[in-house]
Amino acid sequence: MPTRVWLIMFLAASVSTVQAQTSDMSVHALCDAHADALLTALDQAHYDTAAADFNDALRTRYPAAQLQRDYESLPSKYGKMLGRGRPHTGDMAGHSVVMTPLIFEHGTLSAEVHCDADGAVSDVRLQPTQVMGTP
Question: By the 8 A CB rule, do 38 and 71 touch?
Answer without folding.
Answer: no
